[in-house]
Amino acid sequence: INLRTQHPKTAKQIEKSYSIHPVSARVLAARDFKADEMLEVFLNPTLGKGLPPDTQLYGLQAGCELVEQIASDKQTVAICCDFDVDGLSGGSLLSSFLRDAGIENTVYVPDRFKDGYGLNAAMVQQAKADGHSLLICVDYGTTNHKELTLAREIGLRSIVIDHHHVGDHVVPADVFINPQQKNCKFADGILCAAGLVWYFTIGLKKYCKQASKLDPRRYLDLACLGTICDMVPLQGVNRVIAKRGLEMLSQTSRVGLQALKNVCGINQEVTGGHVGFGIGPRINAAGRMLDGNLVIELLTTSDSLRAKKIADRLNRLNLERQDTEAIIKDAAHEQVQSLSGLPYGIVCHGDDFHTGVIGIVAQRMVESYYRPTAVLGQENGIYKGSVRGIKDFSVVEALTDLGDILLKFGGHAGAGGFSIAPENLATFKQRFNETCMKRLEKVSLEPLSTADTTASLAEIDIRLVEDFKNFAPFGIGNAAPQLLVEDLKVQSVQVLKNAHLKVQFSDGKVSMPALMWRTTTHPAL
Predict the structure, then answer these.
(1) Alpha-carbon distances of 415 from 46, 48, 373, 398, 434, rounded to whole Å
(2) What angle do CA 116, 119, 125 make, to 5 degrees?
(3) What is the extent of the structural domain holding 349?
(4) Is 192 in a helix, a strand, or coil?
(5) 3-class secondary-structure state, position 111
(6) 229-277 residue pLDDT tens
(7) Is 456 helix (H, G, I), strand (E, B) or coil?
(8) Bridge partner list, 504
(9) Are residues 276 and 472 in contact, defined by beta-carbon separation less than 8 angstroms?
(10) Total structural domains in the chain?
């Protein structure tokens, strides 16, 4: 366990200035906060203080002016979005905003099993056949050079709103909005697609007269879904979107979100945990197991009965996803345990591995073995793979190293996807391990827990819990506070539902229970 450097004087200043729990103050000081404006924005993130100017987002004004031109000519828009939470929430947000502005649009979602990830030629041609004049890509497009060139050739204007890795190629879109491009770096490049789309609505209100009376704040309930679920740092602008979006989600008037909350059993203030572990997985289940278009309909419908039916369907799909995931995860563990030693880069594959859940399984393998992991399943004679990484390791850079043997790939630092011909699978296994070995040369292969500060059991009280609630939502860039409590004795150990661990601890003065999820053992017990 690594204990952060403590700053007792700063902690005292924070405690006094903000009237917060002394342990909370120690946590904030250890995270390099001081009693200044930056801490004020963290504790009380508002749309006025925490947002960088939209003028800094390269391409935003040009994109909004193009939409204004299309709308003024009474033409319509095709929105093409990804099938995960980020793409679906971003696509639904943009569709709803444009429709509220009187701009007709159609949303197209690729079929994970027939089309794979990203924009494809069939979608481009269908958008043209349906009479649209402008194509807007949400959560992909950066690497879809052929498809965007096709769009241009058949007379479709195009805007790409994406946040994935940008290579050396020029993106052949009329407008390219991606903070990862060299001339941008808006908000340090941390926004997901749904967050970028929300910023795009701010621009539309300014530059598109049809949208001048709309309030982008009304769409934060959709923007926060992608922001929380897409593993982007929950700092700065993302914290504002997530925090204020959760408040809107708690009182949303969207019947689709209300139906989702109902099937998740959420009847209180919505938290980041509700989104990350309840709403998000059910949205993802559609794209993983069946069809992402279900989610678009759910998030944009005004029919409460239809919304309930779709939400119930997503709930069943999520249960099916959990069963499928468990089967593949067990098979993947067997493959790793059959090896003579643990490789630097793990590769697990099966012809019958459901490609809708291989990303989740890859993440579970990383949690078990703390190695970059690729999990592959076969579709139509081609292997499709999903990769998850560890701290200080870039997945997309590793895939770039292997680009010559891949049919297609993309992603970002923490996660990526690819497709590969079966005859190259053995080569991929070898070279993935080699590139991981090279890239992990100076990276710790032992997961290290970082404690923010020390505390006694007596200090852990309701007031502290309330403070920590205000620090939420938690995720990358804003981890849940971790406290180091020393010299504890174990009073009892209990396994809950054959899945979780409950331990009763005592320091001689205070006794307190603790829970550990998704495990029934611990090496210290």
Answers:
(1) 30, 32, 10, 11, 18
(2) 115
(3) 339-439
(4) coil
(5) coil
(6) 998 999 999 999 999 999 999 999 999 999 999 999 999 999 999 999 9
(7) coil
(8) 492, 513
(9) no
(10) 4
